[in-house]
Amino acid sequence: MPEFALSSDGTPIAYDTVVVAGGGRRRGLLLTLCGAFFLDVLGSTSVFAASPAIGGAMRLDATALQWLFTAATLPGGAVLLVGGNLADRYGGRRTFLLGLAAFTLGSLGCAVTGSYAVLLACRVVQGVAAGVFVPASLAVLLATFTDGTERTKALAVWSTVSGVGATAGLLLGGVLSGVIGWRWVFLINVPGGLLLGLAAATLLPRTPRRGREPLDVAGLLTFTLGAAAVIDGLSEIPEQGLTAAPLATSGLGVASLVAFVLVERSTAAPALPFRLLRQPRVAGGLVALGAAGLTVDGLLFALTLLTQRQLGWNALGFAAAAAVMTVTSVGSSWLAGRLVPRLGAPALAAIGLLALGAAGVCFAATAMGAPTLLLAPGLVLFGVGMGPAYVGGSNASLLAVPPADAGAAGALQNIAFTAGSVVGVALYATGIAAASALPAALRYVPSFACGAVLMLIVAASLTLTTSRPGTRGSAAS
Fold this sequence. Notes:
Blueprint: E1 4-6, E2 12-14, H1 23-58, H2 62-78, H3 80-90, H4 92-112, H5 116-144, H6 148-179, H7 183-187, H8 189-203, H9 217-240, H10 244-266, H11 280-310, H12 315-343, H13 345-367, H14 375-398, H15 406-434, H16 445-466, H17 471-476
Antiparallel strand pairs: 1-2
Helix pairs in contact: 1-2, 1-5, 1-6, 1-8, 2-5, 2-9, 3-4, 3-5, 3-15, 4-5, 4-8, 5-15, 6-12, 6-14, 9-10, 9-15, 11-13, 11-14, 11-15, 11-16, 12-13, 12-14, 13-14, 13-16, 15-16
């Protein structure tokens, strides 16, 4: 039976609650949604490992290479709330298929072009498309799996896909670019996108539009502009440092986000329901996801430089190291999903963040000249921490969300992780640049050490939150 709420004019509207008959069909739907998410995460991280090959083939400097990441991250992070709202108002199936089709076309364009300008344009298409179909896929997932136990299991699978995709992308990107060429990093998305699109057209149910509520254009516009400016400003810090230009851009973005908050408080149908943020469980989950994004992408950025510049590894050597993280993240994500009801999502996230912090300590010791063998436990800890950090944060922020807010909640989850990722790369890059005057063996130590301390602080905060009476149970239910 559909669930109902009242729109801004008092008209009953149906939530996009989805009934999918048969356990096999539901599993197929979940695998399709997770497969699309995997494709997005895989594509994002594989570019990291393939960037040296792309730079060599197109004769790009460091600034041009950085824009390969920014061209997708900036618009993708900026339109997440738009994607969530489209899914909530016009149906997750429509929005998902539209975004996945655009992502597949963008990937094909990246693979076949020989022009850097066209490559950047196609990366923009990839980013915008992912910003649309990822929150839409979460909206369908939350609307399909409404029972607490089923939703916990589904979110555990979803979270596992993220961790596996992030590290598998490093492995695959290194192998593909090192063996058959960098174009295959993008070309592999095309058959994947086509197959997932066919599966989605078959398995995803058609859902009705939600009444007559209009899109909050002013809210979406101020948020999109603000998010884009903040991401752009922070992305420029690794290259320009803490100079006037990136700080001014980030400041303008913050001002636009303040305007967004004011707009949302005065509109009858806000793009972002602030009632979600007022729930301690949701807010704690978003903080955990932001911290995980900061550490994962920040560590990967610094680890790539450490292994390839200081230790002299090639792309295939780094891919082999990434395989260690991939294998351990699969196991830790699976185990974390089973432990959510027992430990509670925030406590699980805290455990994961502590493991990520410990990985940073191992990397710092390696950078200082400790035996390279010490890198191995750091890689294992990285994979071990990624699973519970993301599974715990995702479950805390999404487990109790009603179907009517599924798209917005999915957007918030991805916004938190994306914001953390952008801040993480900027933070680690700034730390490395600031330590350039130090001996080579010490240049990476401040960044790794600061990241480890930050994870300790966030983990302690989450632990204190879960220690309050009744909190653990609510987080897991």
